[in-house]
Design goal:
globular, Rossmann fold, 17% strand
């Protein structure tokens, strides 16, 4: 099994649930390596957004509160940094702030930017997994190191019934290397 193939299989699995909606930049149009994992997802399930990461994460929380399962895609950690207020102060804390009255389930997908064959410079290759993990009290952060980690992690994120969201971290270099 290959890293990219497992990601594509996982996205198709998620799309099998009628509650999922895929949102972000380059989800309905090509533009990133992650776009290629969505090319067989029906177009009506893909919500293309402008470059507005804080708005995207706010929409993610809203969709989750409305009972949908957003798969919110930020191609690189460095982009997700712009949505951290919404991630840390809202999505992560909604269950705590509501004394368990609201439970949200969102799937947030991000990546450590590929450095090979061309290094895109440091604003695209950050890995903030440990820092974000330390800031989250309810969101589970999972780093996808090996191809065999991918499908079970996305399956767990979809099937979980504990009212928690999941943030999955991919490696851009592994799309073609593993």
């Amino acid at each position: 099994m290959k890293y990219f193939d497992e990601l594509k299989r996982s996205m198709e699995y998620l799309a099998g649930d009628p509650r999922t909606v895929f949102i972000g930049q380059a989800v309905a149009v090509p533009g990133t390596a992650m776009s290629n994992t969505l090319k067989d997802i029906p177009g009506h399930r893909l919500l293309e957004l402008p470059v507005a990461e804080e708005m995207q994460m706010g929409m993610t929380t809203g969709l989750a509160l409305a009972g949908q399962i957003p798969v919110s895609i930020f191609p690189r950690w460095n982009f997700l940094l712009c949505g951290l207020s919404q991630l840390i102060n809202h999505l992560d804390k909604v269950q705590v702030m509501s004394n368990g009255g609201f439970k949200t389930k969102a799937i947030v997908r991000t990546g450590i930017g590929a450095e090979r064959p061309l290094h895109p410079q440091h604003q695209h290759v950050g890995d903030y997994t440990q820092a974000i993990q330390a800031m989250c009290s309810t969101i589970e952060v999972i780093r996808l190191d090996e191809p065999e980690d991918i499908f079970p992690a996305y399956q767990r994120a979809l099937l979980r019934d504990d009212g928690r969201s999941t943030l999955l971290v991919e490696y851009g270099d592994y799309y073609s290397e593993k």
